[in-house]
Prior knowledge:
Layout: E1 10-13, H1 18-29, E2 36-38, H2 56-71, E3 75-84, H3 106-120, E4 130-143, E5 146-160, E6 176-178, H4 190-196, H5 198-218
Parallel strand pairs: 1-2, 1-3
Antiparallel strand pairs: 3-4, 4-5, 5-6
Helix pairs in contact: 1-5, 4-5
Amino acid sequence: MADGTDPAPRVLLASRNAKKLEEMQRILAAHLPGIEVLGLDDVSPYDEPAETEPTFHGNARIKALAGVAATGLPSLADDSGLCVDALNGMPGVLSARWAGVSDADTATKDRANNELLLAQLSDVPDERRGAHFTCAVVLAVPDGDEVREEAVEGTMAGRVIRETRGSGGFGYDVLFCADGHDVTTAELPREEKDAISHRGRALRAIAPLVAAALTSCAR
């Protein structure tokens, strides 16, 4: 740059979720001060791939690779969901559209998904309502004609309760109590949820890998 300073390292997080972007910015800044995390609304629009893979890692990977191809920036993407023991691991990768695909707002979709899940588990006893959240995060970094990839996964074990509780979080948080807690993840303070959540664990695991990759790109 003209003033002799290096530009701030930048990474794309393939998401429009403000909470995810803020969390990633906060976690990455501890490893790479000055980093700038961009969201999909901060870059030129591009065709976002459908989440057609049968695994969380697969869906995160196609989104991260699409971000690199469209922007040329190191790109992060995640996919996560709730896996219920009594439903043989479902909703899983279908968590966000368990009650069907619609154009409704996020709150309406979440409510429909939660109502359907409660109905499906209505006759399941408490001791068989075990479940866990999983989050896969993939980092894709352009390297000449190649793209280098890193992947991590985080989980949070717990159980599905019988009624919705709490106003924080999103998705199935209002139905899920993590192991060792009697409150739902929607009732936990943000910092406490971040410390135990599947996404928080995955983001903290990927953060040093992002810092190393961006430092390497800057050389």
